[in-house]
Structures are given as structure tokens and as C-alpha cells.
Amino acid sequence: MTIRAATPYLILHGRARDAIEFYAGVLGAKVEALLTFGELNKATGPRKDDVMHCVLNVGSTILMLSDGPMDGELPPTGLVAVALDFDDREELDRVFAALAKDGRVIEAVFDAPWGARFGVVHDRFGAAWMLNCMQA
Fold first, then answer.
1. Residue 72: what pLDDT?
2. CB of 109 within 8 A of CB of 118?
3. Which residues contact 33 (CB under 8 A, 6 or more apart)?
4. Minimal CA–CA distance to 112: which of 130, 94, 100, 87?
5. Per residue in 29-77, pLDDT tens?
6. In sequence order, what are the residues at sequence separation of 6 or more whose Cβ sits closer than 8 angstroms to the Cβ of residue 104?
7. Given the DSSP bridges, would you call strands 51-58 and 61-66 parallel, antiparallel or unpaired?
8. If residue 61 lies in a helix (H) or strand (E), which one and from where to where?
9. For the residues 3-30, what does the mean pLDDT come to?
10. CATH class as words, domain 3-134
11. Is the pTM of this model over 0.70?
12. In the chain, what percentage of residues exceed pLDDT 70?
């Protein structure tokens, strides 16, 4: 019943591929995983090749990034969130509820197509949190 990791997650408003190349050159980052919207849900529109999720190895840690959600507005500068990886669904639900109190639910917790329980919330201080727990 613990959080396994807290990872910076950059939402880059359609600029993820440029950022991947930039971070590879500047930070020596290596792509561990990259999934497009087309690969995940067979999207065929103009966003099919956009980055849905990318994991970069940066030294001994990771950085995650995305072009942003398929729908919804983002500020042109993007967004930085903290991705929490849980090993227990009940703990995810408890933490999500606590963060959402006096905050704003962006995406209610649901069973995501990549096999996880997932939700997004901005807490009462405006900090963005992405909560994920792979299904057991």
C-alpha cells in the first residue's frame, strides 16, 4: 500500500517530439518507451502521430512527457505534473480523493486502456497530479 515512484511529467502541447530530440542532445536522454495516440486507440485524425506517452531515461532517473490529451485545452506553455505510480488501487483512490478536496478533478479515476487505474487532479494549491496503478 505504497506509492512506488513520483515522476515529473511534462505535458508539452504538441511539442513532445521536439522536446525528446532536445533532451536527448542536452541531457543525454534515451527513449525507453514511446506510444502515439494512433497506436493506443487507433486514432486516424490529425493527432494520430502525436505522442500520447513517452518515457525518457535521464541518468539514473526517468522523465515522462506527452503532447497532451486528445481533447481539452492546455495553456500554450504546457503543464508540468507529478505522476504517482501506486501498487494499490485503494491507496490511489484515497490519495486522489484527498488531493481533489478543495481542488479540481481534471479526469476522474477510470480503468484506462493501457491496463491501469488512472486519474488526474489539480490540488487546492494548483499543483497537477497524475495517479496511476497497474491492474493486478
1. 64
2. yes
3. 53, 54, 55
4. 130
5. 999 999 998 897 777 778 889 999 999 999 898 999 998 887 766 666 6
6. 121, 122
7. antiparallel
8. strand 61-66
9. 90
10. alpha beta
11. yes
12. 91
Average pLDDT over residues 10-25: 90
SS3 label, residue 25: helix
CA–CA dist 45, 33 (Å, integer): 22
Contact 27, 41 (CB under 8 A): no
The gap between the terminal CA atoms of the chain, to the nearest Å, is 13
110 and 125 in contact (C-beta within 8 Å)? Answer: no
Number of CB atoms found within 10 A of residue 13's CB: 16
Query: Which pLDDT does position 68 carry in this prediction?
Result: 84
Distance CA 93, CA 123 (A): 14
> If you write DSSP's letter for every residue of 63-118 in order, what string do you get?
EEEES--SSS---TT-EEEEEEEES-HHHHHHHHHHHHTTSEEEEEEEE-TTSEEE
Domain-by-domain residue ranges, the chain? 3-134
**In b/e form, how buried is each residue of 66-95, taking b as 16+ CB within 10 angstroms?**
bbbeeeeeeeeebbebebbbbebbebbbeb
